[in-house]
């Protein structure tokens, strides 16, 4: 297919072409599983094709494209070619840093099989949209594909824009079909949880405006008279930044739904938003656009926030591939800050079992690709009760840390005990975050960070399978922001490496300390 006869975006012709491309994925999966040394081409488009109003809440969000640099580890396969497209040019030091992590492959050999393109565009538009407006760039990407029958495109999340780009490249998309994206909204996931028969907070979905919100809040209080608060969520919010809390203080649960609704409506502008700069006017405008849910807030004296990372492969087979305990912050502890792997032994088997039921439903619905399922878990007596909260039908904050561990060590996740074993037989743990940030880090260049890590012995060491791997390096100089994956042989060692990283960075950026000679 040439660029001249590609159908317009969103037309039935484009959908038909996309379906034909997707039909190739099972055969491609089988061929590569049988022989991973085949000369395949992987086109990586790390676009965050999400609501721009929500994205702007995150400092340096354009650099989150760098989280998918972990895919450079695919160059371990000696005949794999990787084409990576970004909004802005990557610092060569960042690229060299990742290539230096490859084991068993000279960096020069991997570099010859890596093609980097960028749009030279830092505007507030998704990367995929930028590429679609650059037909010459699309043609250059097409020319780099070795064999159309042994190639695919991968992305952070899939929307009609990613579908359109896949058709223009003539490549199948290894991600969720955009037609199924509703399953990953806050409303859609509640319906999936219901079908899977897993517990979730009492609440209501498919809400459209403040009147729906007020009525749902009223119905929750009528059902749970002791409720202190409830959560109002945007359908397409992420990392917890699209959530807000409503407090029931002063409301009489014995009053009728209509009476409670009338009292609640004027109190809605006082919602407690998780995003610091959010306002009622901005929040309700987005709510009317995308809809949302209202749920009872899960209370508990001892409460954890585990998650399960899952995938459905190209053959339609569901699998749970890891569990994590999430590290949460924000005004009420709903904003994702990082994670530890694996989840606590007391309940990770139960979380895996619940997640597998959800994955089976998604597989039946036709989902293919990686996704995460978040829970809130409350101790009840000697056990735990797990409430499914949301499905992130895309790569998320736990995806790249786990891939980092898997690619660096070549190990495997054991579904029987929920642990990860390196080829050496050692169990591996990590502590990871996307949100290590300090004013003092501003001005540090990627080369400075690499020097600091090497000087202090933080850099990941292949033979010992321990150390620190950085990401979001491009956000460091301007935003003082950095991502870290600290890998160790046990939970304490991983946390020690993370804390050591904090200590080293603080010491190296201490204005009273003076500069170490580089």
What's this model, at a glance?
The protein is of the alpha+beta class.
Could you name the key traits of this structure?
D-amino Acid Aminotransferase, Chain A, domain 1, five-stranded antiparallel sheet, 32% helix, alpha+beta, 518 residues, eleven-stranded antiparallel sheet, 20 strands
How would you sum up this structure, described in words?
With 518 residues, the chain is α+β, with helices and mostly antiparallel strands. The protein folds into three domains: 3-175, no CATH class; 202-296, no CATH class; 303-508, 2-Layer Sandwich (D-amino Acid Aminotransferase, Chain A, domain 1). It is built from 17 helices and 20 strands. The chain has helices spanning 12-22, 25-34, 52-55, 92-99, 107-112, 127-132, 135-143, 160-169, 186-196, 210-223, 257-264, 280-290, 348-364, 399-409, 446-455, 476-479, 491-508, and strands at residues 41-45, 81-86, 114-118, 151-155, 203-207, 229-234, 243-247, 272-273, 292-296, 303-304, 306-312, 318-329, 335-341, 369-380, 383-392, 412-414, 419-421, 427-437, 467-471, 481-488. The strands form three sheets. Strands 10, 11, 12, 13, 14, 15, 16, 17, 18, 19 and 20 form an eleven-stranded antiparallel β-sheet that branches. Strand 6 and strand 7 (243-247) form a beta hairpin. Helix 1 (12-22) packs across helix 8, helix 9 crosses helix 13 (348-364) and helix 10 (210-223) crosses helix 11 (257-264). The mean pLDDT is 91.
